């Protein structure tokens, strides 16, 4: 199976892109996208930089998926 991938592209002179990838987890958990978007919005709302917010939100979702294996 392909690895999950998120790509952050910023408008900048160097056209930088930051790639976030990880292993695909089999889980019975539901609401992965909703959980990720809510966590990301929360991290941004408390003032974390975008990259840090993405990393923390992805970690929160990964921990939730690992806690609810198939």
Question: Can you put this structure into words, describing what you see?
Answer:
With 70 residues, this protein is an alpha+beta fold. It has helices spanning 32-45, 50-67; strands at residues 5-9, 17-21. Strands 1-2 form a two-stranded antiparallel sheet.
pLDDT averaged residue by residue: 85
* Strand elements, count: 2
What Rg is obtained from the alpha carbons, in whole angstroms? Answer: 13 Å
- Biggest sheet strand line-up: 1-2
What features would you highlight for this structure?
2 strands; 70 residues; single chain; alpha+beta
Short description:
This protein is α+β, with helices and mostly antiparallel strands and 70 residues long.
SSE topology sketch:
Blueprint: E1 5-9, E2 17-21, H1 32-45, H2 50-67
